Amino acid sequence: MPTVTAVAPDRSASGPEGTTAGGGVPPARQRAQGRIRNDNPLVGWAAALGVALLAFGLRVWHLGTPRDFSFDETYYAKDAWSMLNHGYVREHVEDADKLILDGRGSG
Predict the structure, then answer these.
(1) How much is the pLDDT for 55?
(2) Cβ–Cβ under 8 Å, residues 106 and 84
(3) Where are the domains of the chain?
(4) How far, in Å, CA of 102 to CA of 79, rounded?
(5) What are the tens digits of pLDDT across the range 5-29?
(6) Strand, helix or coil at 83?
(7) Which of 15, 40, 69, 74 has CB atoms 3.0–4.6 Å from 97's, for a disulfide?
(8) Do 77 and 100 form a contact (C-beta atoms < 8 A)?
(9) Strands (E), 33-82
């Protein structure tokens, strides 16, 4: 039968003190730099514009939903109207939600 001898790889140069290729580890600043390096200012502006357009698209997507007002939206509007007109929060008139949603500020 043939004899098979296994040789363990030399791991002395790997780990925090070296790379698997045997060289030293580059400084953190060099490792943190991006792989694509382009000093063209148009690339930076195009990237910024792309991010802004993406943010705008996500902001206006489904802007009309939900179609109904929630409790908080009218609750704080009533308190704000009361503080502007009276200087303090007071009891609300009957059907104040409907009045605010109709655009009428007095009841």
Answers:
(1) 97
(2) no
(3) 71-102
(4) 17
(5) 666 555 554 455 556 666 788 888 7
(6) helix
(7) 74
(8) yes
(9) none
